[in-house]
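Protein in question quoted for reference:
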Amino acid sequence: MRGAVVLLSGGLDSATCLAWARRHEFSAHALTVDYGQRHAVEIDRAVTLARELGAASHRIVRIDLSFLAGSALTDPTVLVPKARSRDALASGVPSTYVPARNTVLLSLATAWAESIGVRDLVIGVNAVDYSGYPDCRPEFLRAFETVARHGTKAGSEGAAWCIHAPLLHLSKAEIVRRAVTWGVPCGLTISCYDPGPSGEPCGECDACLIRGAAFRDAGVEDPSRPS
């Protein structure tokens, strides 16, 4: 069975990607990165999701990105934006952008993949994300494949690296529908950037607003929220 390293954050998108990898008969090795993010409860959710979705293995890597200033996810002096309008959500790069985060995450995924003989990487970026985050865009993913090809022993010996982004051109509602169809336990996933102590969503951050709209548009009740 062909192997793949799947970046698993504990959120809905990455969990759906893990389900996609299993559905496509990859031996899916889940990688979760604890980088000091504000919403660290997602690490615990990732552990459960990896088990529930049948990951072949699951590694948690701890790195410290708290020195990165200016991001609401790593800098405690920056507040998570709340209750923004739909127009505001769709414009500019938000303060929840973590400098070069996906470059760091894909570098770790590439290194682990090479060490275990895997050449496929799976990441949960999508159309809504890449409208605001530069490291979620198709050109970034293709450029990183080139980095992997030229920057690894495997690549120098002719191995072909492939970054799969199965959600790239889907709306959030379409992702919800696929998650339900593919058996993702959506109630275990967390999207909130500023959750409470037990992981309860704030309901007002960008991620909560986007998730809420996605479930409504999909005609599906979000099991992570009280009815």
Notes: The longest helix spans residues 101-115. The mean pLDDT is 94. The chain has nine helices and five strands.
